[in-house]
Amino acid sequence: MNCENCNDTGDVHSLDGEWRGICSCPAGKNLSKRKPTAFTDTQIAAIASTVNDWDDDKSIKRASEELLELALVLLHLDRGKATITDVKLEMADVRIALQHLELKVGNYQAELDAKVIKGNPQ
After folding, report:
1. What is the mean pLDDT of the chain?
2. Strand (E) positions, 34-91?
3. What's the pLDDT band for 106 if we cut at 50, 70, 90?
4. Which residue has better confidence, 94 or 31?
5. DSSP code of 79?
6. So which domain of life are we looking at (predicted)?
7. In the chain, fewer beta carbons within 10 Å around the N or the C end?
8. pLDDT tens sequence across 74-92
């Protein structure tokens, strides 16, 4: 009988395909014993460069600010100081910010993959 969490692969993924971690089943324990992939110094430099770019990106800050504003509107709604329309408008702003963030993260991931494959930090 296969593991219900990882189907005996050792890797656990959510329904949308996102990797969630290593399973605690025998296959996962075997997987965690493996030696990690070694990156060259150039590949490590490429990874560091791209991660630094992520840190400077304002998309993460904007998305978190929009989520905070949504939380405040929901609090005001609960207290009778905001309307459902206010909530819907904030939710639209959050959706836009999160879509932009998703696009930026996807671009960074593609850039990082290309750098690591090429072994080029630039």
Report:
1. 79
2. none
3. confident
4. 94
5. T
6. Bacteria
7. N
8. 888 888 889 999 999 999 9
Q: What is the identity of the amino acid at 20? A: R
Between strands 19-22 and 11-13, the pairing is antiparallel
Q: How far apart are CA 85 and CA 47, in angstroms?
A: 43
Q: Please state, in angstroms and rounded to a whole number, the distance separating the CA atoms of residues 71 and 64.
A: 11
Q: In terms of C-beta density within 10 A (0-12 exposed, 13-18 middle, 19 or more buried), how is residue 66 classed?
A: buried
- What is the distance, to the nearest Å, from the Cα of residue 60 to the centroid of all Cα atoms in its chain? 11
If phi > 0 it is left, if psi is from -120 to 50 it is alpha, else beta; for residue 51 that is alpha
Distance from C-alpha of 24 to C-alpha of 87, rounded to nearest angstrom: 41
Tell me the β-bridge partners of 12: 21
